[in-house]
Amino acid sequence: MDDHSIEDAPESLDEPALKRIRAVATFLDESVEIPGVGYKIGADPILGALPVAGDLVSAGMSMYIVAEAANLGVPLNKLLRMIANVTVDTVVGAVPVLGTLFDAIWKANVKNVEMVEDHLESMAGDDDEFESDPVKIEIDEE
């Protein structure tokens, strides 16, 4: 996962939440490097080796990332894409043997964190989006 820097992020950004979702994604998708290959896998394919229960635990941890994304202000359309990533990861990951290999390659959590970071970076230049204009109500007294 790329280590994005949110230098111009809005002041209201919850940086600890961003660090937490990065940590969860790294744990699930890229916490262990395979020696000699340089490829990283995480706990997701390992948990997937436990039929049903492992996939459900992994899905629950993945949904934590989606929940934090919602708290960080990620819009609904992106949240739905994130949920779709988790759903694909969970359903295909539940297939014996092939699902474990899929989990090692798909990396839904890394994709989801990248979506959050991309959204926050795009918002960094839009300070106007975080300020609200006063609403003016005119009453016609005829």
Automatic annotation (TrEMBL):
One Pfam entry name: DUF4112
InterPro entries given in the database record? DUF4112
Q: Protein name, please?
A: DUF4112 domain-containing protein
Instruction: Please name the source species.
Output: Haloprofundus marisrubri
Traced from the root, the source organism's taxonomic lineage reads:
Archaea, Methanobacteriati, Methanobacteriota, Stenosarchaea group, Halobacteria
